[in-house]
Amino acid sequence: MLYFFDKLVSRLSLFLQSLALLAFIILTCSVIYEVVARSIINKPTIWSLEIVTYMISCVAFFGSAYVLRINKHLEVNLFTNILPKKIKLIFSFFSNLVGLIFCFIAFYYGCKLINLSYILGVVSVSELRTPLWIPQLTVPIGFFALTLEFLIRILKLFTAQNNKQ
């Protein structure tokens, strides 16, 4: 059961990472186009800054679950490296639990934000007039994937501990 759930979450994280990569490519192309349009053609765009801002959000929130999966998030381990293995396990459990709770709360309130933005019909103040619930979707989607990744990490800690006993 854990294997199936892990594979499912892994595929979600990989898919979101692919979307983050696509957003990064769009972001890069938009910036290059804006620089060329502004400095060479002397006709700046009205959409570039807004698109780049949305793509930065996509890169940050969509890429974070995959980064957690491959264990490349920032980790301060100066103190924990000198601890015994059993205490390291306890610290790992609690840090993953705190991460899970935080991400779930951010997911919940991100959904509430989107609901409010959708109901009120909030749009961006730029010329694009983008309905803001669309770019705001990156927040709960990213935190949902992070919540699942933290849950997998906790379950793997317990599974690894049970297999050793």
Structure in words:
This protein is an all-alpha fold. The chain has one domain (2-164). The chain is 77% helix and 0% strand. The protein contains five helices and no strands. It has helices spanning 2-39, 48-69, 85-120, 133-136, 138-164. The longest helix has 38 residues, at 2-39. The two termini are 20 Å apart.
Query: Helix tally?
Result: 5
> Helix amount, in percent?
over 70%
Secondary-structure-based class equals mainly alpha
Give the H and E element order: HHHHH
Cα separation of the termini: 20 Å
Q: Would you count the extended β strands for me?
A: 0
Radius of gyration: 20 Å
| Number of spatially distinct domains | 1
- The coarse overall form would be elongated
Largest sheet: none
**Segments where pLDDT lies below 50 for 5+ residues?**
none
Q: Give the strand content.
A: under 5%
Q: Give the integer mean of the pLDDT values.
A: 93
What's this entry about, in short?
With 165 residues, the protein is mainly α. It is built from 5 helices and no strands. It has one domain (2-164).
Q: What is the element layout, followed by pairings?
A:
Layout: H1 2-39, H2 48-69, H3 85-120, H4 133-136, H5 138-164
Helix pairs in contact: 1-2, 1-5, 2-5, 3-5
Give descriptors for this structure.
single chain; 165 residues; mainly alpha
